[in-house]
Amino acid sequence: MIAAVGFWFASLGCVHSHHMTAMSDIDAPGPLSEGRLVQSEANQIVTLGVARDTQFAADAYADLAAQCPSGTVTGVQTRYSSALGIFQWEHTVKMWGYCFD
Cys-Cys link to 64, which of 21, 30, 40, 88 (CB 3.0-4.6 A)? Predict the structure, then answer.
C-alpha cells in the first residue's frame, strides 16, 4: 500500500497546460515592421484552491500599455496557461503586441 501511494505522488510531478491563445485586431497606423514589440507577463499562485491575486491578467495588460505611454498598442496576443502541482498551481498570462508611438 505504501509503495502504491509513493508511486502515485511520484507520478504526479508537474503538469503544464496551455488553455487559450487570443489575438486582438490589428489597427496599425503603418506596417508592423515599424512598430516596437512590447511584452508583459503576470502570474497567479493558487494554493489548496485559494487564489489571492485575481487581477493578474489586468496587471499584465496595464504593464503592456505602460510600455507604450504615448502611443497605441495593437495586435495584442494573449497566452493563458497553467502549471499544475499537487497542492498548488500557477496560472500565467503572457501578452505581447506592437507599440506605435
Answer: 40
C-alpha grid cell, residue 15: 503538469
Cell of 3: 509503495
Contact 64, 41 (CB under 8 A): no
Q: Which three cell numbers stand for residue 89?
A: 498551481
**Residue with the three cell numbers 487564489:** 51
Kindly give, in sequence order, each residue whose CB lies less than 8 Å from that of residue 30, ignoring residues fewer than 6 positions away.
100
DSSP 3-state helix, strand, coil percentages of the chain (rounded to 5)?
25, 50, 25
List, for residues 13-56, the tens digit of each pLDDT value: 566 676 788 888 888 888 888 999 999 999 999 988 888 888 99
| pTM for this entry | 0.74
Q: Collapsing DSSP states into helix, strand and coil, what is residue 82? A: strand
